Amino acid sequence: MEALALMEKTAAQIADLRSSLLREMATKARLRIDEDKLIAGLASKLETGLGPQITDSMQRVEEVVRAHERRLDALGEKKVTEMKETLQEATKGLERAEKTAAQLKGALTWAGVGKVAVALLPLALVGLAVAVLLGIGGQLFGVGPVFGWAWASFAAAEAWWLKLIIALATVSGALGVCWAVYRLGRKLAEVYRGW
Known about the structure:
Layout lengths: L1 H28 L5 H70 L5 H31 L2 H14 L3 H32 L4
Helix pairs in contact: 4-5
């Protein structure tokens, strides 16, 4: 028991010693900095150490800015010159158009319009005849009924692939007829070119 009492006494002494050491260390471990002295010292060191570098950097930046300004000025002058040339060419073109319009002002009279209309009359009649013939020809050859039959077949078909076949056949037939009419028209144009 004496040993237990001695051990408890020693443990208590160690705990007291530990807490007193911790308090003493806490008071000594605190670091106090005078901010004004620190700022003054760092500012002077930064000023002497970085001052020349900062001035050199500022000079380089100013030189780069000046070089860019010179390039922009040169580019602006070049663009202004190009625009002036373009506007001068456009002005010359407008002046020529104005002179041509003034010359043509009295050239086309009502008699001239009548002559042009008389000259275009045969072409208009031929166009009308071709349109009528194509309409009658379409009815004679059954273009309308063929398309009606194709549409009815398409609507009646239930399978998608059958609808696709009907649509492709109808479109192919229409394109074939258009191609044939085009080729025939080209042939007629070559035959009657000198007419």
